[in-house]
TrEMBL record:
Signal peptide: none annotated. SMART domains: HTH_MARR (SM00347). This is MarR family transcriptional regulator. PANTHER family: CONSERVED PROTEIN, HTH-TYPE TRANSCRIPTIONAL REGULATOR RV0880. Residues 1-106 form the HTH marR-type domain. Gene3D superfamilies: Winged helix-like DNA-binding domain superfamily/Winged helix DNA-binding domain. GO terms for molecular function: DNA-binding transcription factor activity. Pfam families: MarR.
Length: 124
């Protein structure tokens, strides 16, 4: 699965359903590219298209339960691989990494807030 596909599924899982055009903006890809990616994700059962309750003309993209399971599996595998690498570090490097974790977590929060603010839902 491409990094963009993982990013789209993660965004949908974190923020809820989004318009395809908003996903294209947040991922910094063209709308035709996002349309093709969403079609692939829906064909795989990882995402689905839904009508927006307040405006039937608006189509939203949402992550499915299968998509969420796929993300969890990928995160678990990534965490295991990272754990194996961290175990190879010496004590000083481990302490340095541990001390940096709060700042790294805050950066991740800020990145998520920045991305979320660029993809508002339509008004009801």
């Amino acid at each position: 699965m491409s990094l963009t596909a993982v990013s789209v599924l993660s965004t949908l899982e974190r923020t809820g359903p989004r318009r395809l055009t908003d996903l294209a903006v947040s991922e910094e890809v063209t709308q035709p590219s996002m349309t093709a990616l969403v079609t692939q994700l829906t064909d795989l059962g990882l995402a689905e298209r839904r009508r927006y309750p307040g405006d039937a003309r608006v189509v939203l993209v949402a992550v499915t339960e299968a998509g969420s399971r796929q993300l969890r599996a990928m995160r678990t595998a990534g965490a295991s691989a990272l754990t194996e690498l961290i175990e190879k570090l010496d004590d000083q490097d481990t302490e340095t990494l541990t001390a940096a974790l709060p700042a790294l977590l805050r950066l991740m929060e800020l990145a998520g807030e920045s991305q979320d603010s660029r993809t508002p839902l339509p008004k009801r």
